[in-house]
Write a structure and sequence with these properties.
Layout lengths: L8 H5 L20 E8 L3 E9 L2 E7 L10 E10 L8 E3 L7 E13 L12 E8 L3 E8 L10 E6 L10 H5 L10 H5 L58 E4 L9 E6 L3 E8 L2 E6 L10 H7 L6 E9 L1 E2 L2 E2 L1 H10 L4 E10 L2 E2 L5 H8 L10 E3 L3 E2 L2 H10 L4 E6 L8 E9 L2 E11 L9 E8 L2 E8 L5 H13 L1 E2 L15 E3 L4 E6 L1 E2 L5 E2 L2 E5 L46 H19 L4 E5 L9 E3 L11 E6 L5 E6 L3 H9 L2 E6 L12 E8 L5 H17 L5 E4 L5 E6 L6 H18 L4 E2 L11 E4 L9 E2 L14 E2 L2 H4 L13 H8 L18
Parallel strand pairs: 10-22, 17-19, 40-41
Antiparallel strand pairs: 1-2, 1-6, 2-3, 3-4, 4-9, 5-6, 6-7, 7-8, 8-9, 11-20, 11-21, 12-13, 12-14, 14-17, 15-16, 17-18, 21-22, 23-24, 23-27, 23-28, 24-25, 26-27, 28-31, 29-30, 32-33, 32-36, 34-35, 36-42, 37-39, 37-41, 38-39, 38-43
């Protein structure tokens, strides 16, 4: 009987193990269900996807890497089987050898076929499976394409199934740039470094893998977006770790506000909490200021590990049942020490800085990079713009409580305001237990009597007799007996409360109900659970208020008057001064996280773009109160006031003064000497096609990725592309300028026929100028969503790397496309755009 063929014969035949450090192919027992992905920079960069099957690693070369977008089908070329020992290989294969290049262990974990399927399905040309890796998670599909004539290798497609782990288009390959084993970049592996070398420590990249965000990411780059010192808060600033701060509360309304003035979050069914961090320790306070750290010990333990000196983080603690937050499950978890999760949605203070005067967007942008992607006890509560009604419908359909809508530009006031609105899918609120009715069936009680605060006493609000199991009823009865009193707590109809046992009003219950009668009594009510985080004196009737007409508008309400609204600003289009002002008001919610609270230079064209235009960066005292000034030291030692804006009024006020374009520093007011972004402006020679610029941008992205830096493309609105690199504000201007200079010159030196890094016009013919000069103190770059003083009124627009491949002009969107830009900002393709907590590598 002939021996079975060696499945690793081809693998061994292709390699000279005297020259390569790859392991020799020998069969060995394994776990049976491992998988790994190796990023491989050979003749062409690709990702080798491997599944353990029948004692070997079945392998595919995925040319553009795996994508979390279910709409993306990535070509996966079947390669030879690899030995199980290859699962840990990371290093360099010598040039000239098969597969010569750098190999990174990019992901690893376990896999399993979908129920009812098996690995044998590969022989049929398809495999439906689940991954549990460090980066790749959820359901995936491999499908073999129909063989073509003379095809040497099998061509397959790798696709993500649309599930909870699905996400943005290229979030995996574009942002996950370091080894899951050693933390090294491709350059560090190629250079043989044994550990990561970063300026100030390892780069913590925002990968987004394996973490389902309820909506979409927003915020500024580098984990430390624009901010200003507190200017509106009264009283002492928050002192993280030392005292409780009053929380901001929502106003209940009957409809979802529309327009880009609002951001929308999921309303979680749990306990509101404030986490206070200081000196490596964390406390957890309830909404009323009770210290419940012992009840939420696991959350406090996780929070204490956050990379901050001190912080105050606002959020909601929930427990899950069947994948949804459930209040009853939370109550049980508190009693038994079960699993709970803190959803963080606001940041009041950070490392001694009071953030309450900042906008909601700025505070969330400062918060997001602090919350780790792989910590189940802590989650970042994301949001959407311009799609609140759709989010509300989804939440209601999924059985969740509702949504919270917040004005994007509002400060944190620590009280109930109409800047935070809540819209509920069902009728639920807290009531005080004022008594109970005995049961005639030997149960603990027949029903609870409810009340709400009115004046100095309580008003009768009805009764609830369902929603209790025996354990809850027994616990409640013990509590009620301890609060027994002889006199009535409320004035109620005698027929409704005949035989009532009255109690001191201290217990607060969460109640669901169908409706409230005209006299304020509940109908069809059901008990949800006790609220030990809220005092009885604070429980008042909560009636949804009509949404004010001003909040229904499609754009933020501004207080700035725009004169000459009908004046044509772009004479080759019908865009007027009023149109431009309305555009900036509408997109302020998505523009200000990038352009707000940083020194700006304005391109002013008072008579329209065809007349004289000029830059202005200093305050001349003519813009009004909505445009602010920040003092900055000049080279000669003097101080000049520079302009900045922090809300929609500021943007519109600039338009009133003839502004078309907004250009900003690479640093915020809070960290003027430490940039939070790099910008490489790819400026093509007149004779080049836009396709050449796109290819060049992709090349820069790959080179930056080799160094461990995540980057994002932005259409300039002119003829080029900006490659934006977020930074944690750590390195100062000289170091950032030096890095940008050396990086650009290295690219130009490697491909002189393609790139040039000097401004000289004579040297730019037929080439692309890598403008790195924007990365020096005082230099500016056009801000995302800024209009451009060019024909057709185009705007600078963020795009994903996948989108860029199919776009034919850098002026794809214009001032007339504000609604589309707002909708796009919450799309999967722009998930995480401009967000990465990373520092410059040591080169």
């Amino acid at each position: 009987m002939a021996d079975a063929p060696d499945p690793l014969a081809l693998y061994n035949a292709k390699r000279n193990f005297a020259k390569t450090a790859e392991p020799a192919g020998t069969l060995a027992p394994g776990n049976g269900n491992s998988f790994m992905v190796q990023k491989h920079d050979a003749t062409r960069l690709h990702w080798d996807f491997r599944l353990e099957i029948d004692g070997v690693l079945k392998s595919w070369a995925v040319t553009r890497g795996p994508s979390l977008d279910p709409g993306e089908k990535r070509l996966a070329v079947r390669t030879e089987d690899h030995p199980l020992s290859y699962a840990t290989f990371e290093g360099s294969i010598p040039a000239g050898e098969y597969g010569g290049g750098t190999v990174m262990l990019w992901d690893r974990g376990t896999w399993s076929p979908i129920k009812g399927k098996s690995a044998k399905d590969l022989d049929k040309g398809h495999l439906h499976f689940v991954l549990e890796g460090e980066r790749m998670k959820g359901e995936w599909l491999l499908i073999r394409l129909k063989p073509r004539a003379k095809e040497k290798r099998e061509n397959w497609l790798l696709r993500k199934i649309d599930d909870a782990a699905a996400g943005g288009t290229d979030v995996l390959v574009e942002e996950a740039l370091t080894s899951v084993s050693t933390g090294r970049t491709m350059v560090e592996i190629a250079e043989g470094k044994s550990s990561p070398a970063r300026g100030g420590g390892p780069a913590k990249l925002v990968e987004g893998a394996g973490r389902k965000r309820t909506t979409r990411r927003k915020g500024d780059a580098g984990g430390s977006p624009p901010s200003t010192p507190a200017k509106r808060r009264r009283g002492p600033p928050p002192r993280a770790g030392e005292e409780f701060q009053e929380l901001q509360l929502c106003t209940l309304v009957d409809a979802v506000p529309s327009g880009s003035a609002w951001l929308h979050e999921v309303k979680y069914d749990g306990y509101r909490a404030l986490v206070s961090l200081a000196n490596g320790k964390a406390k957890v306070f309830t909404r009323s200021g009770l210290d419940w750290t012992d009840k939420f010990a696991a959350i406090a333990e996780a929070a204490a590990k956050l990379p901050v000196k001190s912080a105050l983080i606002d959020g909601e603690i929930v427990a899950f049942k069947n994948g949804h937050p459930d209040f009853s499950t939370l109550k049980d978890a508190i009693s038994s020490g079960g699993d709970m999760t803190f959803f963080a949605f606001d940041l009041l203070a950070l490392d001694g800085e009071d953030l309450t005067a900042l906008s909601n967007l700025d505070r969330k942008a400062r918060l997001e990079p602090l919350i780790p992607a792989d910590e189940d006890r802590l989650r970042y509560s994301d949001h959407v713009f311009g799609a609140g009604e759709q989010l509300f419908e989804t939440m209601c359909r999924e059985g969740l409580e509702g949504i919270v809508s917040k004005r994007a530009d509002a400060p944190y006031l620590g009280k109930r305001t109409k800047a935070w609105l809540k819209v509920k899918c069902t009728h639920r609120q807290e009531f005080v237990i004022v008594g109970w009715l005995p049961s005639d069936k030997k149960r603990g009680f027949k029903s609870l009597l409810l009340g709400v605060r009115e004046g100095k006493g309580y008003r009768y609000a009805g009764k609830v007799g369902t929603g209790f199991d025996q354990a809850v009823m027994d616990d409640l009865r013990d509590r009620l007996d301890a609060l027994d009193r002889k006199t009535p707590t409320v004035d109620a109809p005698k027929a409704a409360v005949r035989g009532a046992k009255w109690v001191t009003p201290k217990l607060v219950a969460e109640i669901a109900f169908a409706e409230v009668t005209p006299d304020g009594v509940l109908r069809h009510s059901s008990f949800i659970g006790l609220r030990e985080d809220k005092a009885a004196k604070d429980v008042v009737a909560e009636t949804p208020a009509p949404l004010p007409a001003a909040e229904e508008s499609a754009a933020p309400v501004t207080t700035v008057t725009v004169s000459s609204r009908d004046r044509l600003i772009f004479e080759d289009s019908d865009v007027t001064k009023g149109d431009l002002a309305d555009y900036y008001a509408a997109v302020s919610g998505i523009m200000l996280p990038f352009a707000g609270n940083r020194p700006i230079s304005l391109v002013r064209c008072p008579q329209g773009r065809s007349r004289a235009c000029f830059f202005q960066k200093h305050d001349a005292g003519s813009f009004g109160d909505a445009v602010h000034k920040v003092p900055i030291r000049e080279k000669d030692g003097s101080t000049e006031d520079y302009l900045y804006v922090d809300d929609a009024d500021g943007l519109v006020a600039c338009v009133q003064m003839g502004t078309i374009e907004f250009h900003g520093w690479g640093s915020s007011n809070a960290t003027l000497e430490k940039p939070d972004r790099l910008v490489f402006d790819l400026d093509p020679d007149e004779g080049l096609d836009f396709g050449d610029t796109k290819t060049a941008a992709e090349h820069l992205k790959n080179q930056l990725a080799e160094l461990g830096l995540v980057s994002f493309p932005m259409l300039s609105g002119g003829k080029g592309v900006h490659v934006v690199v977020p930074l944690t504000p750590q390195a100062e201007w000289p170091a950032v300028k030096d890095f940008a200079d050396r990086f650009a010159r290295a690219l130009a030196g490697a491909e002189p026929e393609r790139f040039v890094a000097t401004m000289a016009k004579a040297k730019r013919k037929g080439r692309i100028f890598i403008d790195w000069l924007r990365n020096q103190r005082g230099a500016t770059a056009v801000m995302p969503y800024s209009a451009r003083a060019r024909a057709g009124a185009p705007v600078a627009a963020p795009v994903s790397w996948s989108e860029l491949r199919d776009i034919e002009t850098a002026a794809r969107w214009g001032v007339r496309d504000g609604a589309e830009l707002i909708e796009r900002s919450g799309s999967r393709g722009l998930e995480g755009w401009g967000v990465a907590d990373q520092v410059l590598p040591d080169l």
